Each structure stands twice: as C-alpha cells, then as structure tokens.
C-alpha cells in the first residue's frame, strides 16, 4: 500500500471514519473542503482570463491540489508514532467523506414532497444540483435528488474509500480535491470550456475504476435476480450514451437497481439539455429518494464488510 499501512489497519480506519461521518457529519465551521473551495475560487478568478485557457486551468489545478496533497503526506510522515499516524489518516478520511451530508441534504426533499410542499422541495433541491428547479415537478425533483444520491454516493463515499485504500489519507485528500475542482470548473460553458477541461479529465481518470466498482455494487445489491439482471442491462446499454464516462455507469446501474426511470430532459444554465433515459420502470417519485439513500447506505456497508473480510483473510494467511 502506498500509505504504508497494513490492510487490517486500513479496514479499521475506514470503519472508524465512516462512523465518525455518520455521527458528527460535516464540520460546521472551518471545514477544510470549504477552505479549499475558497482557494480554488480565488485561483480561478486570477487565472481564468486571456489566452491559453487550458494551460491556465492546468496550472490552477496543480496550484490548488498538489501543495495541499504534499502537506497531507508530509504531516503523515512527520507523525512517526504509529497510533498517532493512523489516527491522522482516519481524520483525513473523515474530512473527505460526505455520506451523512448526502442523507441530510436529500431526505428532507423526500419529506417535503410527501407533504406536498413543492416550493420547499424546489428550494431544497436547488441547494444540491446546478439544474434549474424553479418550476420543477415532483418527478423532476425526485430525479434530481436520486441522481445526486447515486452519483455523489460514488464521489463522496466509494471513490474516496477506494483512494484511501490505495494511498491512505493523502490519497483521499487528492481525490476529493480533484473531484471538487471538477464540480466547480468542469462545465461546458464559455467560461469553463477550456479552463475546466483539465480538471474534468483528471477527475475522469481518478474516478474510472471506482465508478465501475460502484456500478457493480449497485448491480449486486439490486433486489432479486431479475433486479440484478435489469441493473446490469441498464449499465451496459445506457451508460455509453451518457456524456460522463463515470456518471453513466453509476447512475444507469443505480436506476436499474431501483427499478425506476431517471435521466431525461433537464434545464441547465437556462437551456434545456436532452439527456438519455436511465433505468427501467416507472418515473421516480418522492419515496424513491429514500430507496436511493438506502442503496447508497447498503453499498457502504458492503464495501466496509468486504474490506474487513479481505483484512481477515490476509491475517489468516500470515498466521
């Protein structure tokens, strides 16, 4: 492991960090990712101008990500006492996870829809997606929330755990910062088309394997053999049509596992974007947001259980 941790320690720290995230949630003040976002905005304002926008975007990405990743790695190295070093790895992972945040931002949307509070559901949904929710229907709001849960379950939980396994706390930090920059700069608008291209492509590369592991997990956790077959077929048939090489597998398999229809038209930056259909079944309704959350939660349990099982097998093999 690039982190220098043995796999048993890695598995234990994953469990600890997930439990901390579910218990405490995000730090309300001075969250490191919020500070990173402010630094990234300052870099973008400074460098996203003039000619050579792609090169400027690449420079901005390096200035944003590499010094902080190096600092995290240096602090891990400096904390030479193994228990302290392990605790710092777990703390870094905790700061990078967003599982409770997904729950706290999405389940209130389902609750608002259950109470027929469409204005409230539109307001809550606008906090988590970039699409226009001003006149969105219940189906459109449910699609937005469920898609966010499925995709961000990968970004904020599973891919972060994957990079923690590969490179410990600094690996999780590197991925989450790269993913944050993609969310901030990876738009195909006149302002970001060239400047954000590097951030988008780097995130695609870092997310390639985790996204497919997430899609496979959604397939495995689909109910019954028919549900698993449906999730697999949706992944194979629908993902290639999606613009994002990683969101496509994740959301198509997730929609197939839920047995609902996601995707379709949505309004971004004042323009209707005709996106491919995802999943198979009736259009999603408010209660399906809870089902999408449960799929993400069960997938988290699966990943932690698999990590612990692999750690136990490795310990037995060395006994």
Automatic annotation (TrEMBL):
Membrane-crossing ranges are: 6-24, 59-80, 156-175, 295-314
Its record classes its membrane topology as: Multi-pass membrane protein
In its keyword annotation, does this UniProt entry include Membrane? yes
Q: In which pathway does it act?
A: Cofactor biosynthesis; adenosylcobalamin biosynthesis
- For the keyword Disulfide bond, the answer is no
Cellular compartments annotated: Cell membrane
Q: Which superkingdom does the taxonomy of this entry point to?
A: Bacteria
Query: What keywords are annotated for this sequence in UniProt?
Result: Cell membrane, Cobalamin biosynthesis, Membrane, Transmembrane, Transmembrane helix
What function is annotated for this protein?
A: Converts cobyric acid to cobinamide by the addition of aminopropanol on the F carboxylic group.
What the record says about family reads: Belongs to the CobD/CbiB family.
State what protein this is by name: Cobalamin biosynthesis protein CobD
The source organism is Duganella lactea
Q: Gene encoding this chain?
A: cobD
């Amino acid at each position: 492991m690039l982190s220098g941790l043995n796999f048993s320690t890695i598995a234990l720290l994953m469990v600890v960090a997930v439990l901390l995230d579910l218990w405490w949630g995000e730090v309300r003040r001075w969250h490191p990712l919020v500070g990173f976002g402010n630094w990234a905005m300052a870099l973008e304002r400074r460098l996203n101008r003039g000619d050579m926008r792609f090169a400027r975007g690449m420079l901005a990405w390096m200035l944003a990500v590499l010094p902080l990743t190096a600092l995290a790695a240096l602090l891990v190295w400096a904390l030479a006492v193994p228990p302290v070093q392990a605790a710092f790895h777990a703390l870094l992972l905790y700061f990078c996870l967003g599982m409770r945040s997904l729950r706290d931002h999405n389940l209130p949307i389902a609750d608002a829809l259950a109470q027929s509070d469409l204005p409230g559901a539109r307001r809550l949904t606008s906090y988590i997606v970039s699409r226009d929710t001003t006149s969105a229907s219940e189906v459109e709001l449910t699609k937005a929330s469920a898609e966010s849960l499925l995709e961000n379950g990968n970004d904020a939980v599973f891919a972060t755990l994957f990079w923690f396994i590969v490179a410990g706390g600094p690996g999780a930090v590197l991925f989450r910062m790269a993913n944050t920059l993609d969310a901030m700069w990876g738009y195909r608008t006149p302002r970001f088309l060239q400047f954000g291209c590097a951030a988008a492509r780097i995130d695609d590369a870092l997310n390639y394997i985790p996204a497919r592991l997430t899609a496979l997990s959604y397939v495995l956790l689909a109910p019954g053999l028919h549900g698993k077959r449906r999730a697999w077929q949706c992944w194979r048939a629908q993902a290639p049509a999606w613009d994002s090489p990683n969101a496509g597998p994740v959301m198509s398999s997730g929609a197939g596992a839920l047995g609902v229809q996601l995707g379709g038209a949505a309004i971004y930056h004042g323009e209707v974007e005709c996106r491919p259909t995802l999943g198979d079944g009736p259009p999603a309704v408010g209660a399906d947001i809870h089902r999408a959350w449960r799929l993400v939660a069960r997938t988290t349990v699966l990943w932690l259980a698999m990590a612990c099982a692999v750690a136990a097998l490795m310990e037995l093999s060395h006994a």
